[in-house]
Amino acid sequence: MSATAMTLDQYLAARQKRVDEALDAVVPLETADPASIHRAMRYSLFAGGKRIRPVLCIAAAEAVHDAPQGVDEAACALELIHTYSLIHDDLPALDNDDLRRGRPTCHKVFGEAIAILAGDALLTLAFEVLGAHPGIDDGRRARLVLELAAASGTRGGMIGGQVHDLEGEGKPPTAQLLESIHRAKTGALLRASIRMGGIYASATPAQLDALSRFGEHVGLAFQIVDDILDVEQPSAALGKTAGKDAAQQKITFPAVYGIERSRAMAEEERLAAHAALHLFGDRAGRLRQLADLVVRRTA
Q1: CA–CA distance, 156 with 152 (Å, rounded to integer)
Q2: Is 156 left (phi over 0), alpha (psi -120 to 50) or beta?
Q3: N or C: which end of the chain has fewer CB within 10 A?
Q4: How many domains does the chain divide into?
Q5: Average pLDDT value for residue range 238-245
């Protein structure tokens, strides 16, 4: 069945399967020495994640080019970074969580030392995957590495957002601090997912600008909905401990704006994401569907 003939559920299942196959090919087997670290890496990586970031990357590439070869392998670097961040985020020194994707967190199963090293190993492997990718020229390879590194780093990237989040606990919730946390902590990697798809498929400057704006709106919408779900859904539905944001006095969208205004903001971001893709016409249909999914999901 062609990609255009698939329902969204079929499309997601097919792309998730491709991403999982790419991940399985690049991550050492559990039996490879040292086995303890590889078991921990695979335990967290194959715990049933939705693969939203690599799927967004693939869909962005497909909006530019019909069937870009090798994009799955490049996209899986995003999942390696994302999973590393979850392992470290769950550690006692940070969010101190016992549950992730519906089962015990990495440090609960393998101990803190191995969990830290498993996160380090996934981070390192992400750049090895991009650096060794045989299907792209040196110029695009360098741009992809730079994009992923910047989105994962301290200056407006994921780690910088995590620092703001950590240091913001217990402070009065303000819109300014909220934006500094979430545009970096969650939004940067989601935006990079879209941009990396465009870069991989050799997007024109105008196309990459449109994809960047789409990514910014989707990234913000994702975090707004995440904050709402933490308030409204039980742990069983989320696959992680619910209510942690309020318990740790984190600065969230419901804390600053309330639930109803937060819902309205997520919808505004969804519509803005759609509008950003005007340049692509029907070619961006999957990206629009994914933006809808981000806002309307229940877990």
Answers
A1: 9
A2: left
A3: N
A4: 1
A5: 63
CATH of the domain at 41: 1.10.600.10
* pLDDT greater at residue 195 or residue 164: 195
Range of the domain at 155: 3-296
pLDDT tens digits along 190-216: 999 999 999 999 999 999 999 999 999
Dist CA 295 CA 269 (whole Å)? 9
CA distances from 284 to 9, 53, 145, 279 (A): 17, 16, 25, 9
When pLDDT is cut at 50, 70 and 90, the band that residue 108 belongs to is very high
pTM: 0.93
Amino acid at 118: A
Contact 228, 260 (CB under 8 A): no
